[in-house]
Every structure is written in C-alpha cells, then in structure tokens.
C-alpha cells in the first residue's frame, strides 16, 4: 500500500522539498496490481473467498486522502466498501461510481503468469480481475485520490461503492447494499460502472484507415436464470416408461437449445447500429445482422449478442442408477432478454417447455436502460474525445449483466463506462473471464485522465 510522503520530514536543521504527488496513471497500475494479489474468487451460490481483505485495502487507500469509508458485511467476510465525498454544492444531484471486488475462478496451470501475482509484463498488468474489474477500481481510486490531494471536488456528492458478489447474483453485494444501506445512495439518480468506454479498433469500409470506436453502455439484457423440472412415474429401467421425466426434460431442453430467437431491435441497439455505420462509413443491413456482425469483425461483436434474446441450457440432473427410471429430472437454463421484451421471452419459454415441464427462477432481474441522447452520455463521450480526438463514442447494449440491475431497482440509472485506450492486438472481450487476463498500463493512465475530465462535469 502506498503511503503519502510526509512533506515535513527530513534531516534536522535542513529543509527538504515535498515529494511530488504520484502520477495517477502510474498509481492506477500499482493499485491494480495490489488488488489482483487479493484472491477474491467467487465460485457462485455463496461459495466464495472473502472480499474483506481487499475491502480493507480499498478503505485504507481512501482513508489516506481523508475519506471516511465504511466496510459493510452481508455475511462473514463478504464485504463491500461504501464512501460518500461531499461536493461543493449541496443542492446538486449526487453521482455514484460502483464496481466489484470479486473475480471468477482462474486455473493457474492454464496461465503464462500466476493469475493472482499482479505481475507487470510487456506493458500490461496481468492477473485475474485486471479487466473485470480491478483495473477499473484502480482507475477510480487513483483518480479520486489525485483529485482530493489537489483539493478538487465534484459539484454534487461523489458516492462510491466497491462491492462483493457481482460474479454471482449480487445478493451479498449490490442487492444487499441497495436494500440495507439505501440511505447511502440518497440523491443519486445516475451512475457509472463496468463494461464500456474501451476502444475498439475497426477498419471502415472506405479508405482502410483505422476507426477508433468507444462503446458506452446504455443498457444490458435482463437475466432469467431458470430451473426446469419434469415429473413422471418412477419405475424399473427394463419396463415401458411412457411417463419418463428424463425424456420429457430432454425434449424440452432440445426445443429451447434449437430455437432460433427472432431479431428484436430495441432503441439502444438501433442507436448502436446507426453510430457504427456512421463511424465506419458504411451501411448495416438490419435484415442480415448475423452476416453483418461477421463482416464488421470486432465492431460486429458489439451487437452480435444483443439483437435477440437467448436461452442456453447449462446444467442437467436426473436419476441415481442406470436401471431406475427417476420420478423427476431437472435442468438449468441461462436466459437473457432485451429491454422491453421480458413478457415475450417468458411466453416463448413456456411454449417451448410444453405442459409437462415447469420452471422457476433462480435469478430474475429486469433489463435496465439509460438515455443515449441525454446530458450524461454526452459528457462521457466528450471526456473520451478530449483525450482521444479520433474517438467515436457509440451507445452500446451489453449481452450480459452487471450490478447496474440492483441499482436500477432503486431508481439509479447506470452507464457502462470504465475507459481504456487499447492496442489493436488486445482482444478485450477475450479478457473477460479468460486466460491470461491483462490490462495495458498506458490504458489505465488514459482511463484516469478520462475519468478525471468526466468528474469535472458532475
């Protein structure tokens, strides 16, 4: 942990010049490496290493610059950090920056470097969470620390939340603080968090020169994790079994897996397609979006998973012995649906299940959406352009989900904005939950500058 130098320290009878404040970009890289070294692996369903040590480290970094942070626990060791920094104008709306401390598992045997080493190699900080999302937390901490050292505050209160359990359902993190610590978020109507603001180098249709696109998330698909259950008549495996629960479930799962979901162009996705077409100097055929996603390469990845709903079977369970027909069989399905399509999605699932298979939710969260034409999106885009004149910010709808859903439930709209300038060779999407996850040191420096500019608008 970096302690601030004592400007009055020195040899007796001599004067020493105060040490310069650390560069925010360099400090972001150091904080990122330190955070990676805290193993906060979340295996889901309440099976996780405690976030408490990492939370204490974050709280100490804030304490060093005069911020009184509170560590709250939803269960032993499942810790989140909450802080509120008063602004210069008490009548101005507060603004939330949130992110998560936990990470998904990593098998060290698959990695070039130990995944919890925080090693700096080839200009990158390596390790689980470098992108998702300890690098983003580090940028936030470095930016806030630099601003407070310089006596610079936002106009409204700046509210911070460093959270547990995002890599599962958020029940031990964002859901818990939104429910049990609602007063901490008083006055907040908007927020920023992960999965947006990163650069995507893409070749336009015209002269072949690079186009630097920065997707800023204005929404994400809703979550419908479901448990399916088929019930039949138990019996001997050698006898006819017309009421076979395993067979009924298998048929239902097959129907779901093979169903071709229709394209549903929501306002957010239409805005993305228009922005990409403009940035790339091309047209995008809305009637052939699967082919267009392939044609546009990395730019196509931005909409390939968000033009339709999806439902993927992920787990199956039935029986205990080969010669016994079980009375029940179950499966789990990861369902995702676009904003405004929740009822249609569930009606389709019910039709595919048929009359002999029931469903229940393991996790159900509505699809949040933000305004891509509003003042906050404009400020985010302007902060990117100020640091990269070639930046082409576009609205973006995420295929997956974040803690934004929990805050959306209490009236706080989140934008995905963890700004990074990336080289064309780094597969950013492949870094999420992938092997050899890493983030460029100069990308973190870029992100701190962008965040600093954006906070000036709050």
Automatic annotation (TrEMBL):
The keyword Acetylation does not apply. Residues 218-346 form the Peptidase M20 dimerisation domain. Residues 7-24 have a biased composition (Low complexity). The keyword Zinc applies. SUPFAM superfamilies: Bacterial exopeptidase dimerisation domain, Zn-dependent exopeptidases. Keywords: Hydrolase, Metal-binding, Zinc. It comes from the Bacteria. Its cofactor is Zn(2+). Gene3D superfamilies: 1.10.150.900, 3.30.70.360, Zn peptidases. Pfam families: M20_dimer (PF07687), Peptidase_M20 (PF01546). Residues 1-24 are annotated as: Disordered. NCBIfam families: PRK07906.1. PANTHER family: ACETYLORNITHINE DEACETYLASE (PTHR43808), PEPTIDASE M20 DIMERISATION DOMAIN-CONTAINING PROTEIN (PTHR43808:SF8). Belongs to the peptidase M20A family. This is M20/M25/M40 family metallo-hydrolase.
């Amino acid at each position: 942990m970096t302690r601030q130098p004592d400007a009055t320290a020195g040899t007796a009878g001599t004067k020493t010049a105060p040490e310069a404040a650390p560069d925010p970009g360099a400090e972001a890289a150091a904080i990122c490496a330190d955070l990676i070294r805290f193993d906060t692996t979340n295996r889901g369903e309440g099976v996780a290493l405690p976030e408490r040590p990492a939370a204490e480290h974050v709280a100490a970094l804030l304490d060093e610059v005069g911020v009184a942070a509170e560590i709250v626990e939803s269960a032993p060791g499942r810790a989140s950090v909450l802080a509120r920094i008063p602004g210069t104008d008490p009548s101005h709306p507060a603004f939330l920056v949130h992110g998560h401390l936990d990470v998904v598992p990593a098998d060290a045997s698959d990695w070039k470097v130990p995944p919890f080493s925080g090693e700096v190699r080839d200009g990158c900080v390596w390790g689980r969470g470098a992108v998702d999302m300890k690098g983003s937390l580090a940028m936030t901490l470095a930016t806030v620390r630099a601003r407070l050292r310089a006596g610079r505050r936002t106009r409204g209160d700046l509210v911070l939340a460093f959270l547990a359990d995002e890599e599962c359902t958020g029940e031990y993190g964002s859901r818990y603080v939104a429910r049990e610590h609602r007063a901490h978020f008083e006055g907040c109507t908007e927020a920023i968090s992960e999965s947006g603001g990163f650069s995507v180098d893409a070749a336009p249709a015209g002269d072949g020169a690079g186009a630097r696109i920065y997707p800023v998330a204005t929404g994400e698909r809703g979550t419908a994790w479901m448990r399916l259950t088929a019930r039949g008549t138990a019996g001997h495996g050698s006898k006819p079994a017309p009421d076979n629960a395993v067979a009924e479930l298998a048929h239902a799962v097959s129907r779901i897996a093979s169903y071709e979901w229709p394209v549903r162009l929501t306002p957010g996705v239409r805005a993305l397609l228009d922005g990409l077409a403009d940035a790339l100097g091309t047209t995008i055929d809305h009637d052939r979006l699967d082919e267009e996603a392939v044609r546009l390469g990395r730019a196509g990845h931005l909409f390939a998973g968000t033009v339709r709903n999806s439902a993927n079977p992920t787990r199956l369970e039935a029986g205990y012995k080969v010669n016994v027909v079980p009375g029940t069989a179950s499966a789990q399905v990861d369902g995702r649906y676009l904003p405004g399509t929740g009822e249609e999605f569930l009606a389709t699932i019910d039709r595919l299940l048929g009359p002999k298979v029931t469903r229940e939710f393991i996790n159900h969260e509505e699809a949040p959406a933000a305004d891509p034409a509003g003042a906050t999106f404009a400020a985010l885009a302007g902060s990117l352009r100020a640091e990269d004149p070639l930046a082409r910010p576009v609205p973006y709808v995420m295929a997956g989900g974040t803690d934004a859903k929990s805050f959306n439930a209490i009236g706080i709209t989140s934008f995905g904005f963890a700004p990074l300038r990336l080289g064309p060779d780094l597969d950013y999407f492949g870094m999420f939950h992938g092997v050899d996850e890493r983030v460029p040191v100069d990308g973190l420096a870029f992100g701190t500058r962008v965040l600093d500019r954006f906070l000036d608008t709050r």
